[in-house]
Protein backbone atom coordinates (compact mmCIF):
# COMPACT_ATOMS: atom_id res chain seq x y z
CA UNK A 1 0.00 0.00 0.00
CA UNK A 2 2.73 2.47 0.93
CA UNK A 3 4.79 1.42 -2.07
CA UNK A 4 1.88 2.23 -4.42
CA UNK A 5 1.44 5.64 -2.83
CA UNK A 6 5.15 6.38 -3.09
CA UNK A 7 5.24 5.33 -6.74
CA UNK A 8 2.19 7.44 -7.52
CA UNK A 9 3.70 10.40 -5.66
CA UNK A 10 7.01 10.07 -7.54
CA UNK A 11 5.22 9.94 -10.89
CA UNK A 12 3.18 13.00 -10.02
CA UNK A 13 6.28 14.93 -9.00
CA UNK A 14 7.79 14.30 -12.41
CA UNK A 15 4.56 15.25 -14.18
CA UNK A 16 4.07 18.34 -12.01
CA UNK A 17 7.02 20.06 -13.65
CA UNK A 18 4.95 20.50 -16.82
CA UNK A 19 4.12 24.21 -17.10
CA UNK A 20 0.54 23.84 -18.37
CA UNK A 21 -0.55 21.40 -15.66
CA UNK A 22 -2.40 24.15 -13.77
CA UNK A 23 -5.27 23.77 -16.23
CA UNK A 24 -5.83 20.11 -15.34
CA UNK A 25 -8.58 18.81 -13.06
CA UNK A 26 -9.85 15.44 -11.97
CA UNK A 27 -13.59 15.36 -12.47
CA UNK A 28 -15.45 12.86 -10.31
CA UNK A 29 -18.98 11.96 -11.37
CA UNK A 30 -20.46 11.48 -7.92
CA UNK A 31 -23.91 10.67 -6.55
CA UNK A 32 -24.74 11.05 -2.88
CA UNK A 33 -26.60 7.72 -2.97
CA UNK A 34 -23.64 5.83 -4.49
CA UNK A 35 -21.94 3.63 -1.88
CA UNK A 36 -18.63 3.50 -3.76
CA UNK A 37 -18.68 7.29 -4.12
CA UNK A 38 -19.23 7.62 -0.38
CA UNK A 39 -16.34 5.25 0.28
CA UNK A 40 -14.06 7.39 -1.93
CA UNK A 41 -15.26 10.55 -0.17
CA UNK A 42 -14.28 8.97 3.18
CA UNK A 43 -11.02 7.32 2.20
CA UNK A 44 -9.36 9.56 -0.41
CA UNK A 45 -11.18 12.87 -0.90
CA UNK A 46 -10.30 14.43 2.49
CA UNK A 47 -6.58 14.33 1.75
CA UNK A 48 -6.56 14.38 -2.06
CA UNK A 49 -6.05 18.15 -2.38
CA UNK A 50 -2.95 17.94 -0.17
CA UNK A 51 -1.26 15.36 -2.42
CA UNK A 52 0.95 16.13 -5.41
CA UNK A 53 -1.80 14.73 -7.64
CA UNK A 54 -4.34 17.04 -6.00
CA UNK A 55 -2.14 20.06 -6.64
CA UNK A 56 -1.61 18.99 -10.25
CA UNK A 57 -5.25 18.12 -10.95
CA UNK A 58 -7.65 19.37 -8.27
CA UNK A 59 -10.73 17.25 -7.62
CA UNK A 60 -14.02 18.53 -8.99
CA UNK A 61 -17.14 16.59 -8.04
CA UNK A 62 -20.11 16.64 -10.40
CA UNK A 63 -23.60 15.38 -9.63
CA UNK A 64 -24.93 14.00 -12.93
CA UNK A 65 -28.52 14.54 -11.80
CA UNK A 66 -27.91 18.30 -11.87
CA UNK A 67 -26.89 18.23 -15.53
CA UNK A 68 -23.55 18.22 -17.26
CA UNK A 69 -21.57 21.46 -16.80
CA UNK A 70 -21.36 23.65 -19.89
CA UNK A 71 -17.60 24.10 -19.54
CA UNK A 72 -17.26 20.33 -20.05
CA UNK A 73 -19.46 20.21 -23.15
CA UNK A 74 -16.66 18.55 -25.16
CA UNK A 75 -16.39 15.72 -22.61
CA UNK A 76 -18.70 12.73 -22.98
CA UNK A 77 -20.88 12.55 -19.84
CA UNK A 78 -20.59 9.45 -17.65
CA UNK A 79 -23.64 7.26 -17.32
CA UNK A 80 -22.78 5.72 -13.95
CA UNK A 81 -20.86 6.51 -10.78
CA UNK A 82 -18.19 6.87 -9.70
CA UNK A 83 -16.27 7.82 -12.82
CA UNK A 84 -13.03 9.78 -12.68
CA UNK A 85 -12.17 11.88 -15.74
CA UNK A 86 -8.85 13.66 -16.05
CA UNK A 87 -9.40 16.88 -18.00
CA UNK A 88 -6.70 19.23 -19.27
CA UNK A 89 -7.45 22.48 -21.08
CA UNK A 90 -11.07 21.35 -21.58
CA UNK A 91 -10.06 18.06 -23.23
CA UNK A 92 -10.35 14.57 -21.79
CA UNK A 93 -6.99 12.97 -21.07
CA UNK A 94 -8.53 9.71 -19.86
CA UNK A 95 -11.00 8.16 -17.47
CA UNK A 96 -11.63 5.19 -15.26
CA UNK A 97 -14.74 3.89 -13.57
CA UNK A 98 -15.30 2.53 -10.12
CA UNK A 99 -13.65 2.72 -6.74
CA UNK A 100 -12.65 -0.08 -4.39
CA UNK A 101 -9.55 0.95 -2.42
CA UNK A 102 -7.18 3.90 -2.16
CA UNK A 103 -4.37 1.81 -3.69
CA UNK A 104 -6.58 0.87 -6.62
CA UNK A 105 -7.53 4.51 -7.16
CA UNK A 106 -3.89 5.68 -7.19
CA UNK A 107 -2.88 2.83 -9.49
CA UNK A 108 -5.54 3.88 -12.03
CA UNK A 109 -4.83 7.60 -11.72
CA UNK A 110 -1.05 7.33 -12.14
CA UNK A 111 -0.99 6.48 -15.88
CA UNK A 112 -3.51 9.23 -16.61
CA UNK A 113 -1.37 11.82 -14.85
CA UNK A 114 1.62 10.64 -16.84
CA UNK A 115 -0.25 11.65 -20.03
CA UNK A 116 -0.22 15.29 -19.00
Topology, pairings included?
Elements: H1 2-15, E1 24-29, H2 35-43, H3 45-48, H4 52-56, E2 59-62, E3 83-88, E4 91-97, H5 102-114
Parallel strand pairs: 1-2
Antiparallel strand pairs: 1-3, 3-4
The average pLDDT score comes to: 87
Radius of gyration: 13 Å
Number of helices: 5
How do the helices and strands follow one another from N- to C-terminus? HEHHHEEEH
In terms of per-residue confidence, which ranges show pLDDT below 50 for 5 or more consecutive residues? 10-21
Helix content: 25-40%
How is this structure best described in words?
The protein is an alpha+beta fold and 116 residues long. It has a domain at 28-78. It is built from 5 helices and 4 strands; from the N terminus they run αβαααβββα. It has helices spanning 2-15, 35-43, 45-48, 52-56, 102-114; strands at residues 24-29, 59-62, 83-88, 91-97. The longest helix is centred in the N-terminal third of the chain and has 14 residues, at 2-15.
Short summary of the structure?
The protein is α+β, with helices and mostly antiparallel strands and 116 residues long.
List descriptors:
alpha+beta; 4 strands; globular; 5 helices; single chain; 116 residues; four-stranded mixed sheet
Amino acid sequence: MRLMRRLAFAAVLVVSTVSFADAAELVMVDLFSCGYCAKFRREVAPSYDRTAAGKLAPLRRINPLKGWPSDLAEITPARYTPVFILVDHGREVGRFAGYSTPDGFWAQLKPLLARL
